[in-house]
Hints:
Blueprint: H1 27-39, H2 54-67, H3 71-75, E1 84-88, H4 94-101, E2 105-110, H5 113-125, E3 131-134, E4 147-153, H6 162-172, E5 173-184, H7 189-200, H8 209-216, H9 227-233, E6 237-245, E7 252-254, E8 257-258, E9 274-281
Parallel strand pairs: 1-2, 1-4, 2-3, 4-5
Antiparallel strand pairs: 5-9, 6-9, 7-8
Amino acid sequence: MKNMVDRPILIKIPVTKVKLNHDMMSKKEKKSVQQFWDTTPCGTGDINIKTETLEYFEAISERRNKREPFIADYAQFEKWYGKKILEVGCGVGTDLLRFAKAGAYTVGIDLSPKSVSLARLRLHVYNCAGNVIIADAEQLPFKTDSFNLVYSWGVLHHTPDTEQAIKEVYRVTKPGSEICIMLYHKYSLVALQMYLMYGLFASKPLRSLKDILANHHESPGTKAYTVIEVREMFSAFKDVKIKARLTPYDLRYKRDGYFPSWVGKFIPQRLGWFMVIRGRKS
């Protein structure tokens, strides 16, 4: 890893006027998603430490690393030293900070003003450079062919028109450059848990998984996809690799109760809740 003294300073990525796009989906849907994440920005729930402090941000990182220690295997943070990185849906900046610490030119966008505010403060607290703006994943305010990596971890399934967001990811990625996207996996243990809780055990066995996830998992309208559906959505990219990944959430037996990690050794990875997509722009 490069010495932190040599870390690149903040760059200016050309930005057009930010305007939320509601042409294809209703304003109400976007607003409900925004309000959900403004109320509880991703990763901040149940952290009982004074907000906007170093200890607060450290607690967020500690929990994220405990529950999703494999993120670095996919993000490859240190690989992007000196490169232009866009994180679509950066939340409070947990991964964005790691890119910045590794010396990348970091740009993050999020629909949630509260999340953007916390992400900006987080970079400041850690003395790291980066741009964070409020923007819509379905209408990214950047010029075509701008970034060496477009990264998005567990976000695009929350925007109403996920396919449009993926088209925008393609547009702003430089030719030959990479993407790393995580979407929720439909054929997973988490999805099964959701069906049992809100379908079968709720005496609604015919209720669709689509309806259950949209109404009971995180922000309104949340979706999950099959490998076949994802391959179609990312067909414009080349060298696409799709891999399902088991998570502690797949091993959860109650809200804050998890089976030991060794239990996962007996479960196929293909049943994991996270589906990681990597590829390049043609």
